[in-house]
Every structure is written in structure tokens, then in C-alpha cells.
Structure to design on (289 residues):
């Protein structure tokens, strides 16, 4: 069963225009609409746009990608073109896989916000209008019928007991009844399955439950979450790479000074040390993490 907890109300919910006491279905007046719009803003969830090229270049940053790039630089510096080609291919494959996953997540967020881009019947100044759902403000009276995607968190005020598919938010396979055991607030992003009713818009945009969820997703995207397994693997990698650096220095000192490598064959001495360095970098590791 899904969580029945309602989203936290914004601090200024008391500023929502009240229903007309003589006719609850009269709707908002022009003055009330302007006031509510200035307080709550448009009914939309703002998603910061990230250019695709930035999303792709982001895949080349981080501890492991930089290690792989270092290996590629070393390979081309010693003219080992075979290793350079393999390392470069692995680097590009890693970047493409990471880009593909992030692009799918971005498209999912876009689809979530596009659900709000439709029209709904709204009562304003005693008349019924068809408006884009982005123009809704708290206090608006909307008509919800079968097949309508609820455009904002809406309080049932008059009409049938409606069946609402809440699966996108709660995962429940059976539609909920409103008003009923779950209260009278029909959440944004759910779909009316049967019946029709009038409802009063209570929360819009980022104040809705689906808006809060999307904000949390966007916050998670800005924080790098590393599993315990990944932390342990990275610790092992850092130890191995550090040990390899120490071994490289030891090879340079022993072969260069003790065996006169710096005098007899400088390039071979450096190449031997770089081979150890390249071999210590786990080029394929990002593919399995």
C-alpha cells in the first residue's frame, strides 16, 4: 500500500482565496487571480536545463576517468599506439554508458513535467473556461471528469464520488475513492477513472506532492551517491595506485642510479617505470561499477 501522508502545505496557504459563500462554483475573480498568481506563481515545475554536451563532458570527470586519461597520455607519450587506442576506446565507452543513463533520467523528468501541459475546465467569474493547466492558481475551481490527469493538488467540493488512479504516486493497483478514507485532497499527477466533480485547487507546482518528489530527484542528481561496495572498491584502487607510484619511483631510482640507467638508456628506464604505472590503472573498472 502507498503512503497516505499528504505533502506539507506551503507556509502561505492561508492566502488561498476562499470559495464564494453564495456560489462555491462561481470561481475566482480577476483580482483574486492576480493576487494568487503573485503569491504562488504559475502551476509549473521548473527543471534546470543542462545542455547535452555538458552532460557528455561530465562523464570524463572523476577519479577513475582522470586515471584512465592519465594512462592514455602516458601511452601516447611513449608512442605505444596500441595501448593508447585500447585505453581511448574504453574511455569513450565508459562515457557513453554514463551519458546514456543520465540522459534516460533526464527524459523521465521531462515526461513528468509535460504531464502538466494540457487544458482543463475552470470556473472563473461565474463562467466555465478551458485553460492551460499552467495558468491555474490556488483557489481555482476546476471540473474533473473521467480521463482527466489531475493538474494540481485539488480538494473535492461537489459532485460524484470519483475513482482516481493513484498508481503513479502510490503504486496501488486499485483506484481510490474521493472523498473517502483517504480524505478529500486529490493529488496532482493522478488520473480520474470514473465520475466527475468540482474541486478547489489547493497546491500548485513545486508545492504539490509530485512537485516535491521531483525536487528531491533533482536534489539527488546534484549529490553523488556512492554505495558501500563502490567505496571499498575505490579504497582498494587508491591503495593499489599509491603503491604503484611508490614502485615507479623505486624502479626509477634503482634502475637509473644503481644500474646507471640514466646514463646508458634513459628512455628505456622511463618506459619501464611507465609500464608499471599504466598496468596499475584499472581501465575497465567503470564498466562494472
Amino acid at each position: 500500500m502507498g503512503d497516505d501522508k499528504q505533502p506539507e502545505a506551503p507556509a502561505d496557504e492561508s492566502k488561498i482565496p476562499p470559495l464564494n459563500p453564495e456560489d462555491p462554483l462561481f470561481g475566482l475573480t480577476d483580482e483574486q487571480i492576480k493576487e494568487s498568481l503573485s503569491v504562488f506563481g504559475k502551476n509549473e515545475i521548473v527543471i534546470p536545463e543542462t545542455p547535452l554536451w555538458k552532460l557528455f563532458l561530465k562523464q570524463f570527470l572523476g577519479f577513475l576517468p582522470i586515471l584512465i586519461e592519465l594512462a592514455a597520455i602516458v601511452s601516447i607519450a611513449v608512442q605505444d599506439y596500441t595501448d593508447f587506442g585500447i585505453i581511448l576506446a574504453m574511455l569513450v565507452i565508459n562515457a557513453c554508458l554514463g551519458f546514456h543513463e543520465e540522459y534516460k533520467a533526464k527524459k523521465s523528468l521531462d515526461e513528468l513535467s509535460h504531464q502538466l501541459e494540457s487544458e482543463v475546465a475552470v470556473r472563473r467569474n461565474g463562467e466555465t473556461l478551458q485553460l492551460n493547466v499552467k495558468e491555474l492558481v490556488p483557489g481555482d475551481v476546476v471540473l474533473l471528469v473521467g480521463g482527466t490527469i489531475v493538474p494540481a493538488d485539488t480538494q473535492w467540493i461537489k459532485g460524484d464520488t470519483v475513482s482516481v488512479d493513484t498508481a503513479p504516486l502510490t503504486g496501488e493497483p486499485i483506484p481510490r475513492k474521493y472523498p473517502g478514507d483517504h480524505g478529500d485532497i486529490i493529488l496532482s499527477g493522478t488520473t480520474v477513472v470514473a465520475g466527475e466533480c468540482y474541486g478547489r485547487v489547493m497546491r500548485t507546482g513545486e508545492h504539490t506532492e509530485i512537485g516535491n518528489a521531483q525536487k528531491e530527484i533533482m536534489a539527488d542528481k546534484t549529490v553523488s551517491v556512492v554505495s558501500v561496495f563502490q567505496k571499498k572498491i575505490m579504497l582498494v584502487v587508491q591503495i593499489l595506485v599509491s603503491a604503484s607510484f611508490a614502485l615507479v619511483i623505486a624502479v626509477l631510482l634503482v634502475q637509473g642510479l644503481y644500474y646507471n640507467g640514466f646514463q646508458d638508456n634513459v628512455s628505456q628506464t622511463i618506459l619501464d617505470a611507465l609500464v608499471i604505472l599504466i598496468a596499475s590503472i584499472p581501465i575497465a573498472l567503470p564498466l562494472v561499477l
